[in-house]
Amino acid sequence: MNEKEKQVQIYHKTFIGLLLLTEDILDGNDIELEKVQELNKELHNKLDAMIKRDLYTKYKTATTEEEKEKARLEYLEKSGINKNFRW
């Protein structure tokens, strides 16, 4: 099954940072490690949000109780919800 390619929204600041970083790399300029680390952190945060959203969608659209429970537990784990506070 071919899944339609999805679009991802990122903050304007992150997009500009990525663009400037790639230009610096292509031009052979020195790269500031702090800026790379900041962009990396922002992209990882976005990836985490995408994964959590996907797990939530799987939970809401699961066809079996087993799939639903598995997605729910993965979502709660990824969200960092303490096991004492889970339903």
Give your account of this protein's structure.
With 87 residues, this protein is mainly α. The protein has one domain. Helices cover 69% and strands 0% of the residues. The longest helix is centred in the middle third of the chain and has 29 residues. The mean pLDDT is 89.
Chain-wise SSE layout:
Layout: H1 12-27, H2 33-61, H3 65-79
Helix pairs in contact: 1-2, 2-3
Query: How is the quaternary structure best described?
Result: single chain
Q: Structural class given helices, strands, pairing?
A: mainly alpha
The total count of strands amounts to 0
Q: How many strands, what sense, and barrel or not for the largest sheet? A: none
* Unreliable runs: none
Strand content: under 5%
Keywords:
87 residues; 69% helix
Provide a short characterization of the protein structure.
With 87 residues, the chain is mostly helical. Helices cover 69% and strands 0% of the residues.
